[in-house]
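Q: Got a minute? One more chain.
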Amino acid sequence: MTEARNLLEWHQAKVRGAAAQRGLDEWRAREEELAARRKEAEAKIKRIGIPAENDIDNQIALKLAQQELWLVDKDTERFMEERFEKEFALRESKQEWDEKAVEREAALSRETLELYYKIGENIQNPVVEVKRRSCMGCFLPLSVVKMEEWYKGKTLVTCDECGRILV
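A: Always. Here it is, folded:
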């Protein structure tokens, strides 16, 4: 059972590390979006140029473009303040989960990892817990034989219905 428990903890650490990485990627994408908006606003101001005093329409267009640039700068300022704290927390979290995954992976046998990756090719969540005598992957009840095999914990047990590893 310890092999199965280590596998579950390793899987969960990998999933949480990947979630932290997605959070970091979202922050980078938001930063790129703000940079693109700023570049667009600057280009609009440059296209308008300096309008003549009697060209009211272009003066209004210039003021609106300048206001748009100001709003982008304010959004960027707020983003940078918020990003510093949250990105730091995400980086720490990712590092912590990656270290835990490496630690747990070292405790797993090659056969266990091969089974995990084989099942993972077809199923998104290859390791699930057993609760109330049911597989938490397909939510179907386990047979008496499977439950006995699972209780003994001598080998990894897979669900007869969905093929996931039961922990």
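A: The longest helix spans residues 56-106.
Q: Perfect, thanks.
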